[in-house]
Amino acid sequence: MKHTHQKRSACPINFALETFGDPWSLLIIRDIVYFGKKTYGEFLASEEGMATNILASRLAHLEQQGILVKKPSEKDKRKDEYVLTEKGLDLIPVLVEMANWSAEHDPHTGAPPAWIALMKADRENMIQRIRETVQSGGSVFVGEKSLLSQLV
Amino acid sequence: MKHTHQKRSACPINFALETFGDPWSLLIIRDIVYFGKKTYGEFLASEEGMATNILASRLAHLEQQGILVKKPSEKDKRKDEYVLTEKGLDLIPVLVEMANWSAEHDPHTGAPPAWIALMKADRENMIQRIRETVQSGGSVFVGEKSLLSQLV
DNA sequence: AACATCACTTGCAATTCACAAGTAAAAATG
DNA sequence: CATTTTTACTTGTGAATTGCAAGTGATGTT
């Protein structure tokens, strides 16, 4: 990816859009937060079907922006794992608001109504629990350490 | 703009990205919410400098998505005014979280610290006040009806 | 009537993207 | 230990999107 990226403005909305405002970056972060994905192959298998070159360039960009860090997997030396930094974890509220909006306005949304209700009823606390879950290697919906399984 | 847009997935994050996830749509909505812009010419004059064809296609897209409505200006019959619908006003929380994130992580941010502090300290109330201000034709930072001037 | 302003459209070059096909390294399998 | 599979990519190629310059017709101003 070429990065002759001079800032268009000092506006914080613009900064956010320049950092993760392309059509794919937030899907990668969603995969980590909600579905516990960590490796290139797992991201590639997402149902949105992103191209290999796009995925590679987005991962490189997010790493360069300090949102992800790449480290070799301990279990499989061929694999790398992409983990959210603090800066990346701070994007959770953005994801939450986007999901809330879609749950409200997409008649065919796949968002679980109970989950959305929980997010609206106890927002601050839930965001904190999502953050802690992801930070300790879990995710919202998938895996034994999933936040959903803790809440049942 | 061609719209052979079949949904990539039922995921709410994906729905949001497909609806307003391009690099320009949220800047238009920002212009309305924070700076009280309403017309094609005003959007075009934004410091990010978007091309005329891009602006036109984004306005058409957002109108088609039910986020904006276009109506002829009463003062100047050449002009059209673009106004946020309820669906559009519901994007305010997304803007707020993106601004908060950038205020935290962009060392050169232009976001007013006092404003960000206020948004973090009294989020729900402030979002409601932003919504009411914009709904009645005002904006956060600009104009006599601006929310900022009410708070002083 | 002449000129400026408005919301656009059009044409074209440059960039970005999607899709298919590789590649090298490590792991699993026989 | 040789073969096959898996993994994280890179490299082409054509298609779609974007950026820039130059219009266009309707309305407003002088």
Can you describe what's shown?
The structure is a homodimer of 152-residue chains. Helix content of chain A is 55%, strand content 7%. Chain A has nine helices and two strands, in the order ααααββααααα. Chain A has a two-stranded antiparallel sheet. Chain A starts with 11 loop residues before the first helix and ends with a helix. The longest helix of chain A has 14 residues, at 92-105. With 152 residues, chain A is mainly alpha-helical. Chain A binds chain B through residues 7-19, 21-23, 26-27, 30, 34, 47-49, 87, 90-91, 93-106, 108-111, and chain B through 7-19, 21-23, 26-27, 30, 34, 47-49, 87, 90-91, 93-106, 108-111. Chain A binds a DNA duplex (30 and 30 nucleotides) through helix 3 and helix 4.
